[in-house]
Amino acid sequence: MKSAFRSQRWLVALAIAALTALAWANRFVQDDAFISFRYADHLVEGRGLVWNDGERVEGYTNFLWVLAIAGLRALGVEAVAASYALGLGCFALSLFLTYRLGRVLVGTDAAGLLAMALAGTNYSFSAYATGGLETQLQACLLTASALLALGGIQRGAWPPRQLAGLSVLMAAAVLTRPDSALPVGVLGLACLAAIVRRGGLRQLAPLALPFAAIVGAWLAWKWHYYGDLLPNTFHAKLGTPVSWEEGGYYLQAFLVSYFLAPFPLLGLCSLRKLRESSPLTVAALLVALWVAYVFAVGGCFMEFRFFLPILPLAFVLVAWLILAVASERAMQGALVLLVLAGSLHHAWGFGRSVRTKHISTTRELHNAVFAPHYNWAGIGKALSAALGPSRDVKIAVTAAGAIPYYSRLETLDMLGLNDAWVARHGIVEAGNRIGHRRLAPIAHVLERGVNLIVGHPTMKPRSASSPPHYALRDFKEKWWFRLGGPDELLAGASVLEIPVDDSWAVVALYVKQHPAIEAAAARHSWVRRPLAP
User: Fold this and answer.
1) N or C: which end of the chain has fewer CB within 10 A?
2) Do 195 and 203 touch, CB atoms closer than 8 A?
3) What's residue 440's pLDDT?
4) CA nearest neighbour of 394 among 408, 377, 373, 375
């Protein structure tokens, strides 16, 4: 028996190591991650959790993740490397917790191994072991919470210490990302119902008090520090159009690209069997509510990132459907192969042969930061090299990640995620990406004293000849800004072609003169062209 147990442990450990190596092979980093990195750096440097010095705006939605990045930055770890280390660690732990959750809910080692394997080979779940954002930390904390909550419901009791641990985990999940409140609420209510049903009311204190103390202290600090309980990103997205058609496409594209469409149907056919297990019923309800939430908010422009926090629990349910509902071995094997083939199909075809519509693939997200013809990281580094000594140069961007992070210049986020005024009063553009539909009018950009408008970066080959002038309409049409006022607000503006590397230059609108920019333009022979109305 001991020998079999050791063999099982080694099998799980080797599987997690192999799947983590696969996640490393799928690694990427996206522009939005550099928002968190900027806040973390400013915290470590003693400036506080701010976007710009002296501006207390909560432009992030991942408080605990920012603190974790800041901790590694304080130890001298480079930001991207810090996010990789944290993300891969959370990914490996998520896989182990998925294995344990499968064993607890389905009752067999095979179910745990199968759920872990399906989650670990899912391309999106694997790729988002990196990415730079809090996705895997949220998934890890929610899976751990589900394991403690549903395991206690399965056993019929929790030791007080375990309930307190569950309460802390659920609080940490909410601090990692506020929308964790939905699955945390489902798990908390399920535990509450089980406790009341069994008459153990004394267990309510360890379940409720740690959560209330941690989340309450966090909210009190937010109110004191930012003057608001809600992040600025909530205000940036509130009141902008949300299309259920987009949410429906997001869900449909996920199910079709991964060949997962048969499983919701199989689940509906198995509702009677599902109701025989309270923990499985709670798990299914949690997954269904999360999917409804993603549908209601219109999904996300990042490749299926919104589904990832509940994927471990979803794949436990898939493992249960395969092993406990499909009775024939041949059918079980076919369903496993279908899921694995779906992951291969998605990894190869999504963004190539499969239409992505408004969803950016992980490859596209990574390329925006580092590919030569985008190179947002390179733009930030070039601005830092040319203007870095002057701390009062102000830039305005829509791509408010790598460019502000590497430039270290004061930055106006033209989409309002890090700007309180734009988040509440910016012009709404229904056609833009979900969550990015507020735009700064040019009057606000000028009022903020911006010198350079980089906007949504436009790169130009340095080998190509420059036009005699640039037309104002080109800047408006390329999603740089909206006027909201007369064109003469741009009187005296010119256009600079700022070299990024030997092959490419970024085109920027120069709206307010600054000695450091004039000196850099002369020193590096930047091309300057007039702006035609």
Assistant:
1) N
2) yes
3) 87
4) 408
Half-sphere exposure of residue 37, counting CA atoms within 13 Å on the CB side? Answer: 27
- Alpha-carbon distance 352 to 34, whole Å? 27
Q: According to DSSP H, which parts of 240-321 are helical?
A: 244-257, 262-268, 271-274, 278-296, 311-320
Q: CB–CB of 383/521 below 8 Å?
A: no
Count the alpha carbons within 13 Å of 346 in the hemisphere toward its beta carbon: 26
Distance CA 320, CA 273 (A): 11
β partners of residue 529: 495
Residue 328: both structure tokens together? 């024939």
Token pair of 60 as six digits: 């992030």
In the chain, where the domains are located: 2-30+61-223+239-347, 371-532
Provide φ and ψ at 428, rounded to 5°: -90, 125
Which amino acid, 345? H
Q: What is the pLDDT of residues 265-299, one digit of tens each?
A: 999 988 888 888 899 999 999 999 999 999 988 88
Contacts of 270 (CB under 8 A, 6+ apart): 321, 325
Please tell me the predicted confidence (pLDDT) of residue 468. 87
DSSP run (H or E) holding 211: helix 204-226
What are the CA-CA distances from residue 404 to residues 34, 171, 234, 515 (Å)? Answer: 8, 31, 21, 20
Q: How would residue 158 be classed by pLDDT, with cut points 50, 70 and 90?
A: confident
Per-residue pLDDT tens over the stretch 427-476: 887 666 776 778 888 888 889 999 999 988 989 999 888 888 887 776 66
Q: How is 153-207 classified by DSSP, letter by letter? A: HHHT---HHHHHHHHHHHHHHHHH-GGGHHHHHHHHHHHHHHHHHTT-GGGHHHH
Find, among 16, 285, 263, 264, the residue nearest to 150 by Cα.
285
Question: pLDDT band at 486, cuts 50/70/90?
Answer: very low
User: 50-82, pLDDT tens digit by residue?
Assistant: 999 989 999 999 999 999 999 999 999 999 999
Helices of type H across 297-409: 311-320, 329-349, 362-370, 376-387, 402-407
Which residues, at least 6 apart from 314, have a Cβ–Cβ distance to it below 8 Å? Answer: 287, 307
CA distances in angstroms from 483 to 227, 392, 443, 527, listed in the order given: 30, 25, 7, 25
Q: Is the pLDDT at 374 greater than 80, yes or no?
A: yes
Q: Specify the pTM.
A: 0.94
Decide: residue 168, CB within 10 A, 0-12 exposed, 13-18 middle, 19+ buried. Answer: middle
State the Cα–Cα distance between residues 127 and 108, nearest whole angstrom: 28
